[in-house]
Design goal:
12 helices; mainly alpha; 296 residues; single chain; 0% strand
Length: 296
């Protein structure tokens, strides 16, 4: 997982630095999706209460939610979620074993966490699409073994492997979406007077217009499609792409599905985080503090 060392970074709010991180996260997300696409859908792991073994442990969530809770419990003890760019999917996590690091003040205090929405769209919309090829291949194998009807689809039993990769994908998407706070803070500090009127008299549409760059989004989707198309290919032993290996159902990932993930989910949700952050950017400030910012 991509991490930024906030103890050493000279300017964590540099838009160029943020852009570099977001571009690298594209690679992380694409490669994680390729790994998840190797397994069938396995919808059972996303249904709350579907595992008696977990109910016997007094856990009534889904298999994936249990995975997240167990992993994030350990990570919380290691103070992962004290970092300004880390957000858990689980609640009621333990306190860190170690004292928190003295991170520099980067973001305005806030409680924005988009992870419930990320978990929902990922399990409901993204997983079924990117696992379609593996699911169909599984069905063909089951039919050849005399298993037909509802039993032939979706479930290959690889619950642990699928959930392990799901956690990696979710954490990467979460980091990408919540970096919207860094973008908003950077742009706000560059021109506070442009934002303050639309915060004092809440105008989400105006704030979104201030942080949105359509040309940047267009180039992002173009770059993402090119990357996904390259990574979807098979490569020879000497590192050369095997010509047309991604055609006729041979691609390792649904390229259109990757683009849709960004275009329909990640980008819109990031904008929501950016705007929500800005709407609360003046919380707790005195009128004198606000006037001083407006005068910059």
């Amino acid at each position: 997982m991509l991490s930024q060392n906030f103890m050493l970074e000279k300017d964590p709010l540099s838009l160029e630095r943020i852009r570099q991180i977001l571009v690298r996260l594209e690679d992380t997300i694409i490669f994680d999706l390729i790994e998840r696409a190797q397994f069938a859908h396995n919808p059972r792991i996303y249904i709350r209460g579907s595992f008696q073994e977990l109910r016997d442990m007094d856990f009534d969530g889904s298999w994936l939610e249990w995975f997240l809770k167990e992993i994030e419990t350990f990570h919380a003890r290691a103070r992962r979620y004290t970092s300004p760019d880390e957000y858990p999917f689980s609640s009621d996590l333990p306190s860190p074993v170690l004292l928190p690091l003295a991170f520099p003040k980067i973001l305005h205090p806030n409680t924005i966490n988009a992870n419930p929405s990320i978990l929902s769209f990922y399990t409901r919309s993204i997983v079924p699409r990117i696992t379609r090829r593996a699911t169909l291949a599984l069905a063909a194998i089951k039919r050849s073994n005399g298993i037909i009807g509802d039993e032939e689809y979706e479930d290959d039993g690889n619950y642990g492997s699928a959930a392990t990769i799901d956690v990696e994908v979710l954490q990467a998407i979460s980091k990408r979406v919540h970096y919207g706070k860094f973008v908003s803070e950077s742009k706000f500090l560059a021109n506070p007077a442009d934002f303050i009127p639309h915060i004092l008299t809440p105008n989400p549409a105006a704030l979104e217009a201030l942080v949105t760059k359509p040309e940047v989004e267009r180039k992002l989707l173009q770059r993402l499609r090119k990357k996904a198309a390259i990574y979807a290919q098979e490569f020879s032993a000497d590192g050369d792409a095997i010509v047309n290996s991604h055609l006729n159902g041979g691609a390792k990932i649904d390229v259109d599905g990757v683009v849709e993930l960004y275009e329909s989910y990640i980008i819109p949700l990031t904008k929501e985080v950016e705007v929500d952050y800005l709407l609360h950017r003046l919380d707790g400030l005195s009128q004198a503090d606000i006037d001083a910012l407006a005068a910059q």
